[in-house]
Amino acid sequence: MVEENRVTLRGMWSSMYSKRVELALRVKGIEYEYMEEDLMNKSMLLLRYNPVHKKVPVLVHNGKPVAESLVILEYIDETWKHNPRLLPEDPYERAKVGFWANFLHLQVFEALAVVFTSEGEVQERAIEQEEVFGVKFIDRDKYPIISSWVMSLTELPLVKEVIPPREKLAGIFRFIRDKALKSSAV
Amino acid sequence: METVKLYGAWPSPYSCRVIWALKLKGIPFEYIEEDLYNKSPQLLQYNPVYNKIPVLVHGGRPICESMVILEYLDEKWPQQPLLPTDPYERAEARFWVKFAEDKGLSIRMIYRTEGEKQEKARRDALEMLTILEEHGLNGKKKFFGGDNINIVDIAFGWIAHWMGVIEEITGVKLVEGNKFPLLKAWMHNFKEVSLINENLPNREKMVAFFRTRRSLILSAAWHPDFGFISRR
Question: What residues does the GST N-terminal domain cover (chain A) (predicted)?
Answer without folding.
Answer: 5-84
